[in-house]
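Try this one yourself first.
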């Protein structure tokens, strides 16, 4: 079974694919040809425009709806006014202009929760890492952000009844810290075929912030076509911090970061998947008491992320996770540990004096 946007597709024995409404999309060497599918059902989209959209990797109605019209026009080369008409047709066809709170409630019922491997961490997150949301893992070097991302990349492949999302993963690695051997180790610990697990993780190595933006843009095509159920960006901000040095470049940096974060947010909505990003901390000279660090990325990062989780080291090699900002989760904290098998619970929970 494949999904294109919200459409459930069934492959047939002769390589064709049947949509839920019964229409057939022809498949070319196993690839779904989108031009005759979703886009050309829209008013104003002929074969020429469909082809321009396809070249810009905008292949679904969902992608048209969530991408700002100016960006669509720039990417496709189609005139802004024509794009506006197409966007209007896309919105009408999806009936998404005004929805009742009840409809939103229903949409949120489709929200999926991905297990972290630790019961207490799952509880902290209200059941697990949510789809339709962006979760940010914040903390100093060595605290375990990447380890959690590795664990999630493996668990996401499990069936839903085992806490997974029954799908594949995109792992955007901006720092070159993706270690396949560690995935191998975690998968083996869960008694999964490690080679198959590695096959299901698509690695996107981003070499600089522009490359990171480009790769993120590709996700709107890549995710629906490859059964991607989880997107990880580790780390979100590393390139931005090293490329835009000094106050004079701060505004430009924040603008680019903001646009990228919103692209990722749109991805979570368009394809009902979780995006997990990691963020570093920076010294906060104004802080006299308590933790002298604060998350990097300022207000832009704080506003874009749905759930912000702050990680720090606890006693006896454990780690402490605390929700520092979320529209639905209380600001609780729990303890977990990093082991050979990935992320696990610790027997006793946080002692008060570690608070
Ligand atoms: P950075 O900001 O530098 O990227 P990070 O938060 O991503 O840091 P991780 O690389 O996730 O940090 O965590 C590294 C830590 O994970 C190590 O210091 C170690 O404590 C723990 N760790 C890594 N591999 C294992 C393992 N196989 N068994 C147990 N613990 C491990
Ligand atoms: Mg890391």
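Now uncover the answer:
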């Amino acid at each position: 079974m494949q999904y294109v946007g919200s459409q459930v597709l069934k492959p047939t024995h002769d390589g064709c694919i049947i949509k839920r409404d019964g229409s057939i999309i022809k498949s070319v060497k196993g690839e779904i040809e989108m031009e005759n599918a979703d886009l050309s059902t829209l008013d104003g989209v002929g074969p020429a425009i469909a082809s321009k959209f396809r070249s810009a990797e905008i292949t679904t109605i969902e992608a048209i709806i969530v991408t700002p019209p100016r960006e669509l026009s720039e990417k496709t080369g189609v005139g802004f006014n024509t794009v506006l008409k197409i966007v209007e047709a896309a919105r009408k066809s999806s009936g998404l202009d005004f929805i009742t709170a009840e409809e939103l409630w229903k949409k949120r019922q489709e929200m999926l929760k991905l297990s972290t491997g630790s019961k207490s961490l799952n509880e902290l997150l209200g059941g697990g890492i949510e789809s339709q949301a962006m979760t940010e893992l914040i903390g100093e070097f060595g605290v375990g952000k990447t380890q959690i991302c590795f664990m999630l990349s493996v668990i996401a492949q499990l069936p839903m009844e085992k806490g997974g999302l029954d799908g594949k993963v995109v792992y955007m690695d901006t720092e070159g810290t993706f270690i396949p051997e560690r995935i191998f180790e975690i998968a083996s610990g869960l008694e999964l075929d490690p080679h198959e697990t590695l096959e299901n993780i698509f690695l996107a190595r981003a070499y600089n912030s522009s490359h990171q933006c480009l790769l993120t843009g590709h996700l709107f095509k890549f995710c629906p076509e490859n059964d991607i159920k989880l997107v990880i960006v580790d780390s979100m901000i590393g390139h931005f911090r090293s490329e835009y040095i000094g106050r004079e470049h701060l505004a430009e940096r924040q603008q680019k970061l903001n646009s990228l974060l919103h692209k990722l947010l749109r991805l979570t909505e368009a394809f009902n998947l979780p995006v997990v990003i990691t963020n570093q901390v920076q010294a906060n000279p104004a802080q006299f008491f308590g933790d002298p660090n604060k998350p990097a990325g300022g207000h832009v990062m704080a506003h874009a992320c749905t759930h912000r989780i702050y990680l720090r080291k606890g006693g006896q090699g454990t780690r402490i996770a605390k929700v520092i900002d979320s529209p639905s989760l209380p600001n609780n904290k729990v303890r977990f540990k990093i082991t050979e098998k990935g992320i696990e619970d610790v027997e006793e929970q946080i002692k008060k004096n570690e608070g």
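Discussion: The pocket of adenosine-5'-triphosphate (ligand 1) is lined by residues 139, 141-147, 177, 280, 338-340 (CB under 6 Å). The CA atoms of residues 128 and 242 lie 32 Å apart.
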